[in-house]
Amino acid sequence: MTPLPPSHLFTHEAMNTTFQLRIQAAEASLAAGMARECFAHLDFLEARLSRFIDDSDVSRINHLAAGETLYISESTHQCLLAALDAHARTGGLFDITLGRRIEHRKSGDTGDVPPLLGRLTIHPDIAAVTCDEPGREIDLGGIGKGFALDQLREILLDWGAEGGLLTAGASSLLAFGPDAWPVELAGGGESARLPLFNQSLSASGTGIQGSHIIHPGGDDAMPSRSCERVWVTAPQAALAEIWSTALMLLEPEVIADFVAGDDTVGAVYIDRDGKVSPLV
């Protein structure tokens, strides 16, 4: 087992998961101050991005009536613009407006799947969202944790942190600084190790949240044979999370061609028949 680089470890519960910060700093007291600011910002983000908090930006967007405009925090606006870019980058596979269908799936409701109706406009130059027609509900579960990790890295760099490994649960990781951090890709049978150096890694899979992965085109558009698990590295944690979610909606054989030429994708690994294999 490759040892982790020396660091100070801090944990915090937010966004329905456990965040861990392994911060490289000369003094423990300095690292503790960094962690306090990071965790305060995490709570700030959750209070604005969670669809389950009544007065959050996202919850208020989801309750807009036709013609209404809501002014939102700059952080929420940045996250929504990143999601909008991801929708175009992934050919529509990544879609944050499937909240009603996600809730229908999670609840186990056997009734009709909610139709995809409505339209929201995310204004590019001002932090605001307009409801053109109600019906779409935002769920940031496929980008929120990665977006948070990217913001925490900026806070730590502003503080002068030497480096670190930031994680949101077991599915989103971000490494920065002079050291490579050994991380495990745990497949159904075999596992693999990857040195994560100044990049992010995200995982999506059927074993943990398969029932929550929704295809924008409906169940009929789901691939007949998808990967059991996908790992993606990217320069930013939000991008890694976006791509790992989107690639779960593709047949394994088409993934390499689908991401070819996109510089936001680093490496892609899949769990196929219990074995972790690199695709890109």
What multimeric state do the chains show? single chain
CATH architecture of the domain at 54-133: Orthogonal Bundle
CATH fold topology of the domain at 54-133? T-fold
Number of helices: 8
Mean pLDDT: 92
Q: What spatial order of strands do you see in the largest sheet?
A: 1-2-6-7-10-11-12-13
Distance between the termini: 25 Å
Biggest sheet features: 8 strands, antiparallel
Question: Given this structure, which CATH class of the domain at 54-133 is correct?
Answer: Mainly Alpha
Total count of strands:
13
Structural class: alpha+beta
* Rg result: 19 Å
Q: In words, what does this structure look like?
A:
There is one protein chain. With 280 residues, this protein is an alpha+beta fold. It has a domain at 54-133: Orthogonal Bundle (T-fold), CATH 1.10.3980. 33% of the residues lie in helices and 26% in strands. The chain is built from eight helices and 13 strands. It has an eight-stranded antiparallel β-sheet with strand order 1-2-6-7-10-11-12-13. A three-stranded antiparallel β-sheet has the order 3-5-4. A hairpin with a 5-residue loop joins strand 4 (119-122) and strand 5. It is globular and about 55 Å long. The two termini are 25 Å apart.
